[in-house]
Amino acid sequence: MRILVLGGDGYLGWPTAIHLSAAGHDVAVSDNFVRRRYDEELGVESLTPIATLDERVSTWAELTGKTLKSYVGDLCDARFVHAMVADFRPETIVHFGQQRSAPYSMIDQAHAVYTQTNNVVGNLNLLYAIADIDRDIHLVKLGTMGEYGTPNIDIEEGWIEINHKGRSDRVMYPKRPGSFYHLSKVHDSHNIEFACRIWGLRATDLNQGVVYGVDTETTKLDPRLATRFDYDGVFGTVLNRMVIQAVLGYPLTVYGTGGQTRGLINLVDTVECIRISAESPADPGEFRVFNQFTEHMSVRQIADTIAADYPGPCTIEEIENPRVEAEQHYYKAAHTALVDLGLVPTLLSDTLIDHLFAVVEQHQDRVDQAAIMPTVRWRETSSELVRSK
Amino acid sequence: MRILVLGGDGYLGWPTAIHLSAAGHDVAVSDNFVRRRYDEELGVESLTPIATLDERVSTWAELTGKTLKSYVGDLCDARFVHAMVADFRPETIVHFGQQRSAPYSMIDQAHAVYTQTNNVVGNLNLLYAIADIDRDIHLVKLGTMGEYGTPNIDIEEGWIEINHKGRSDRVMYPKRPGSFYHLSKVHDSHNIEFACRIWGLRATDLNQGVVYGVDTETTKLDPRLATRFDYDGVFGTVLNRMVIQAVLGYPLTVYGTGGQTRGLINLVDTVECIRISAESPADPGEFRVFNQFTEHMSVRQIADTIAADYPGPCTIEEIENPRVEAEQHYYKAAHTALVDLGLVPTLLSDTLIDHLFAVVEQHQDRVDQAAIMPTVRWRETSSELVRSK
Are the beta carbons of B109 and A121 separated by less than 8 Å? Predict the structure, then answer.
């Protein structure tokens, strides 16, 4: 199958691209490298040294004999998107190519506007390119479990049957997201559902949990195939960040009481979920939603798990929650669709977190300790035009 | 009360501004005149001749002694929005300043991206300006009944209590809008609800039905106070367009079978709804939604009403529906909140459509007959960079 991976230079996009290539698909990647520029802006870098996209692609060819075509450009440039889709003629497009940090979107007005514009416009351009060039292309779009918020009812997979005043309908699940980033994904979902309805496009919207881990079978083949590992307060996700805190001998920091429950997924399952979704496409006109996580835990439970696994001393500390969110809430979210299609989950309890500890130990001299703590506070705003540290 | 009306040069913004001024409020208006530029782009103009904003404002001062401050700028310019709000220090901001045509948003990729960017970014800038300058400002935001689509259950006012698997929650009403324009309003609603939640802003989201009519008590005072009247296939709304077809002796064109039901509201009620909403503000942190229409009718019923009222011969013709929408559907939508706050509806059956016929007759030499029929088709797309007629 011809698969185009957008954002193919990123934390998840790169491992997905080579996983799909290893599975026998004809894969191309696209990126504008803006994720590397966010690092420069924030003054941080990936814990793992990462090669350039060119080096990654040539390493992959050298090791496996498989070619990855690459397109460099911005999804907000409609001409670029159209020309790329017309040139590669994919059967599936996997869309990771978005700004994906909630704290980054909450830095200030400019970052909120950038996040929503970048994500929504890139996705719209993609929908138009598909509608113009080949309506049979299957769009596999990354969303987030954070779109749902924490409702007091069970979270279903994207759609819900509502009974109301003696009548019923199947409607899109009501969303109540927690940042301008999460909102951008909700906007995308609505736009995609509309495109399926009016143009007969086929789409799979993957509401992904918090991803942890740094390696897959394919990234482990060579250090030049390593993907990024973010631990900073803006782009680092909770479990990865806590592993670093443990290795450095810092307390694991929990936001507030840590009662917030999150869906989790191991990186090795993420790349499998994408393969499974691509190989079992949505029907023409279908807007299909899968909740892409394998287990859920409270932030406190994640900290406890890491503290228990870490061989050295390890403490847990509650800090003021920079976000506005419920710290105690009901949480029951369906996640059976991907398992029904063949996903075999890799649960945290089965994972060798030891391996993660080892990766961090290997690169711990690269950690900027000042970057770990959260700096972006949800309740504060700023329209300042010039920012300084 | 100090009220800032964004989009104050438009079809609804201008009559609202002088209605609020006449009611004793201290009113300022803002516009970037892009609505007049859409006319140039599409090669059409308002049926009613309209004065410039400067002429309107000076006429109003001449007739009433009341001053309207005016700000000229683009809401997508964050510095402009911030400076304006800081300068006028409104207690209420009424936000009409958006691209408001569904067909315009469906012309092609560029118009879809423009509509969503313009509307979402302008609204985000406004939320940030309010959060930065004065979180007590009440935002009165115009949305549309078209955000809901045509669900098979009753439409409530923005929120719905869902019972699901033995639990219940009050959630935002699930939306399924019918164009990239309608989608932009759904995106806005989600962004505003979030801003109320994290910053404690107070907002009223008005999901308005199809507006008809051309005059209010204040616009009738002088021809220089007239508001625009659009009849073209892109910006003309259904009832206004049919009145023109009747006067010109054309068949009233119904899209498809005409079974689509729409909420309707008279222009004189629109301006009253805004006054009522402003004078009874939402609570701090409250995201309040009102459905702003007074009655609903199928498109066929609207045509029948006009045909019955028109003194001359009048026929009705079904044409191919350019949109993708259900032509037969359940429709029951709540609209009691504004009545509870004091709105006295002006129903179509009580209205002197004769007056509308007279306005059209007076200006019928200005009608471009070629502009009446729909030209934008929902199922078609185009990424062409250059368009010609």
Answer: no
Is A115 annotated in the active site? no
Question: What is the reported pLDDT for A387?
Answer: 61
Chain A window 262-321: which residues touch B at a Cβ cutoff of 8 Å? none
A334 touches B: beta carbon within 8 Å: no
Q: Let me know if A71 is a catalytic residue.
A: no
pLDDT of residue A17: 98
Q: Select the residue of A82, A121, A153 nearest B167 (Cβ to Cβ).
A: A153
Q: Please indicate, yes or no, if residue B334 is contained in any of the structural domains.
A: yes
Closest Cβ opposite residue A117 in set B121, B173, B178? B121
Residue B199 touches chain A, beta carbons under 8 Å: yes
What is the pLDDT, as a whole number, of residue A95? Answer: 98
Domain of residue A16: give its range. 2-371
> Cβ–Cβ of B383/A132 closer than 8 Å?
yes
Q: Is residue B377 part of a domain?
A: no
Mean pLDDT of A240-259: 93
Q: What is the pLDDT of residue B350?
A: 73
In chain B, which residue's Cα lies nearest the Cα of A175? B172
Least confident of A296-305, A344-353, B317-326: A344-353
Instruction: State residue A351's pLDDT score.
Output: 72
* Rounded distance between C-alpha atoms, residue B56 and residue B60, angstroms: 6
Residues 119-178 of A with CB under 8 A from B: 120-121, 124-125, 128-129, 131-132, 151-154, 160, 162-165, 167-169, 171-178
Q: Given this model, what pLDDT does residue B123 score?
A: 98
Predicted complex: ipTM over 0.90: yes
Lowest mean pLDDT among A230-239, A377-386, B271-280: A377-386
The mean pLDDT of A259-283, rounded to a whole number, is 97
Counting the structural domains of chain B, the total is: 1
Query: Is A385 a residue whose pLDDT tops 60?
Result: no
- Please check whether residue A386 touches B, CB under 8 A: no
User: Which residues of chain B have a pLDDT value below 70?
Assistant: 352, 383-389
Put simply, the answer to whether B113 touches A132 (Cβ < 8 Å) is no
The reply to whether B190 touches chain A by the CB within 8 Å rule is yes
Lowest-pLDDT range of A42-56, A373-387, B48-62, B78-92: A373-387
Does any domain span residue A376?
Answer: no
The pLDDT-based confidence of A388 (bands split at 50, 70, 90) is: low
Is residue B308 included in any domain, yes or no?
Answer: yes
Return the residue in A121, A157, A194 with the most chain B beta carbons within 10 A, the one to mutate for interface testing: A194
CATH of the domain at A215: 3.40.50.720
* A8, two tokens: 């193919």
Strand partners, A69: A28
